[in-house]
Amino acid sequence: MNPRNRLNFSGGPGALPQSVLEQVRESIDAVPGVGLSVLGISHRSDWFAAVVAELEDNVRRLLGVPAGYHILFLQGGATQQFTMVPLTLMQGSQVPADYLHTGYWSGKAIAEARREGPLRVLWSGEGEGFGRLPSDGELDFAADAPYLHYVSNETVEGLQFHRLLGRDDVPRVCDMSSDFLSQPCPVDQFALIYAHAQKNIGPAGVTVVLVRDEVIGKAPEDLPGFLDYRSHAQAHSNFNTPPVFAIYVVLLVTRWLLGEIGGVAAMAAINQRKAGLLYCALDGSDGFYRGRSAPADRSLMNVAFSLPDVHLEQAFLAESQAAGFTGLAGHRSIGGIRASIYNALTVAEVEELAGFMADFQRRHRR
């Protein structure tokens, strides 16, 4: 690999598919059929209305989203959803909402939700250093909770739920920011799903929200317009000036998933193969590389690991950077190494990283 052609293994923003990047380059100069740069097209134009309509349809096709759901493209990242969710669903309830504390980002969601009403931390992995996820036997879901909130994939710690959680009679809310459109999802089992784009589906600046009609219908009437899902649904994601460029790039990514990859089931198979390459490198290293997460809870998106000491980790990061691999430093909250292998990274590119890891181990094993 030419080090000038760097590979992005960052936790986010992640890489974009090469064919999408080529279309983006062209569209920054002039969108085909429009003749204007995508950076200067009005959000009130017929063209942008068509972009939003096609993107909604593409997400419905990719995930099999049933009737009765709004698909919104909002601003504020997942962080804004940490507040919008309890504002909408707690509704002055004296009964606490159920939250799972499985890592860094679920902790952020809990802190914000506490500002809006009562909540119960149903399970926390903090005491064990967030090295695993709870088993079914450790979870006692409340039948009267206004909703259950959890994060499907903890980006920082490299943990991912590989099963559906909760009760069918309690609304499920899920932050899918780092595994959205990476695999099939039973959308009809959730009241609300949210995901910021800068992992698998586009650049920073847009957050996708799938929200059931009845959730919007029962929301308090006195919410600020910008924090009210109804405002955005009624305006077709055009309540205020939206991030036109970011939404357009997400449209291109969904076209890529549909036309080049063949859908999210095919994408999931590719992602499983990529993750398998790196976990095989960890498991076969005789302890040189030390996986952070319990094997049953390993993420297909974020492979977090450490080396025997900090000096080796520093050498790994320096040598990998020189070899053209970027973004491998672990999150500032835990350190170590993290390889994020989102949709756009190819099997061949992950094979390159696995090869580098094998070579580094040979040269540095004591």
Describe this structure in words.
Helix content is 36%, strand content 15%. 43% of the residues are buried. It is globular and about 65 Å long. The mean pLDDT is 95. Helix 4 links the parallel strand 3 and strand 4. The protein folds into two domains: 242 residues, 3-Layer(aba) Sandwich (Aspartate Aminotransferase, domain 2), CATH 3.40.640; 102 residues, Aspartate Aminotransferase, domain 1 (Alpha-Beta Complex). The longest helix is centred in the last third of the chain and has 20 residues. The chain has 366 residues and is α/β, with parallel strands linked by helices. The strands form four sheets. A seven-stranded mixed beta sheet has the order 2-10-9-8-5-3-4, sandwiched between helices. It has ten helices and 14 strands.
What is the end-to-end distance?
27 Å
User: What is the radius of gyration?
Assistant: 21 Å
Judged by helices, strands and strand pairing, the structural class is alpha/beta
CATH fold category name of the largest domain: Aspartate Aminotransferase, domain 2
Strand content: 15-25%
How many domains make up the 3D coordinates? Answer: 2
Number of E-state strands: 14
pLDDT < 50 runs, ≥5 residues: none
Query: Could you name the CATH class of the largest domain?
Result: Alpha Beta
SSE pattern, N- to C-terminal: EHHEHEHEEEEEEEHHHHEEHEEH
Q: What integer is the average pLDDT?
A: 95
Largest sheet: 7 strands, mixed
For the record, the CATH architecture of the largest domain stands as: 3-Layer(aba) Sandwich
